[in-house]
Amino acid sequence: MFVRWSFGGILIAALIGSIASYSMPAQAGTDSCVAGKCHSTMGKAKAVHPPVKDGMCTACHAVSETKGKSSKHPGGLTITLVQQGADLCTMCHEAKNTKKVVHAPIMGGDCTGCHNPHQSPNKGMLREPAPKLCFQCHADTAFKSAVLHPPVASGDCSTCHDNHQSDFSQRLVMDRSRLCFMCHSDKEEALKKKKVVHAPVKQSCVKCHDPHGSPNATLLTSTVPTLCAACHPNEVQSGQKSFSKHAPTNEGKRCLTCHDAHASDHRKLLPQPQMELCLGCHDREIKAASSTIRDMKGFLQKNKVGHGPLKDKNCSACHDPHGSDYWRLMEKYYTSEFYASYADGRYALCFSCHASAAFTEMTTKAETKFRDGSRNLHFVHVNKKQKGRTCKTCHEVHADTGQPRHIKDMVRFSGWEMPMNFIPTRSGGSCAPGCHGEKKYSR
User: What's the confidence (pLDDT) of residue 31?
Assistant: First the structure.
C-alpha cells in the first residue's frame, strides 16, 4: 500500500523498514514518532485524524534518508508530504471545490488554514472553535448587534452556511427562502395560503431582515417606517409631513399597525377587512386638535344605511389612511365649515363622485331632483357669498337610518341640535328647519 507514495521505488525498503519506528502508535520503551520528547502529545486530543489515531504516519508523510545530511529527525531521516496541499486531502476526502461557490481557503488549496491535519480540541479538527475561526477572515461587526439571529447567537455559522462549498450564494446550505423556512415554517404556510403576499417576501427575506444581527427588532435592516420608505416613499412621507396626520403612522408599531409585513387575505396587506380595521380604533370618541371625532363604530351600529363608500365598507375612498393636507385626512379638499361661499375646489371631494352641474346651474330639469320646477334648489343653497350651505349641512356623509338622499334628522348649529323636519313626497317634499319656515317644492 505504500508503493504509490514512494519516490521512484528507491526508498521502498527504507520506508518499509521504518514503519515500525514511524507509523505505529507509541509503546513504552520503543522509539517512534510519538515517543519521548518528539510528538508525545500526538493522538491525545478530543478530535484526532484517523490516520493519526491508527498510527499511520506514513499515510500522509514520506520518509527518506540522505547520507551525510543532518536532520532533526533520528537517523538523518527527512519527512515530507506524499502530496501537496489539497491533493493530499483528496487522497481520502472528496474534493470540496466542485460546486458554484467555494470557500476561499479551499479555492487556494489550503485545507489546513482551517483544519489541523493531526488533531484538535475542536469538532472537525478545526484550529479554533466556530465562530472564532470564522472571525479570522470575516468581520464580527454584525455579531455584536443588540438583536442576533439565534444560529448566530449560538455561534453556529454552519447552520446556514456550508463551510466548504455550495451551489447557492454566500455558500448557503440551500436556497435562501427554503433555508429560512426550515425554522420559520409558519411564514411558509402563510405565504402558501394567503391571497396577498408582500413583494419583497416573494424575492428574499433578506430584503428586509439581516440574517446575522441588527440593532432593530426582528432583525430588520432599518427601523419602521424608514425601511418601508425604501419602497413606499410617498406613503411614509405623507404620514410624516402632511398637515393632517393619521396617528398610527407615527406612533406605536407605525406601518405595522395596519399592515402585515408578510402576507394577508386582504388588499394592501391589511390584517383584516378595511372597515373592521378602522373601527378597531374608531370605537370611541377621539379628541382631535380642533374638535372631537365621533365614536364611528357606535354611530354605524345605530345607522346602518351607508353613504356609497360606507356601503362598500371603503373608508379610504374619502380618507387617506396615511396622511393628508386636508381636514380629517380627506383625499381631496372638503370644508370643515358650516357656511362657505361656493367654489368648485371647495367641493373637490364630493365631486369625485357627484356631478358639479347639480350645484352650478341655476335652472335645470336633469342635473338634480332637488328642484322646484326647473329652479335648482341645490344652487340656491350653496351659491351664497356669506352663507352658502355646504354638503354636510343637510346630508349625513357616513350613514343614517334610511332617510332619502341621506338627509339628516338633526343639524348641529352653534351648539343647537336643529331639527330638519324633512318630509319627502313623490314629486318633491317639504322642509322646515330652524333656519327658515316650512318650504315645499315639487318637480
Answer: 58
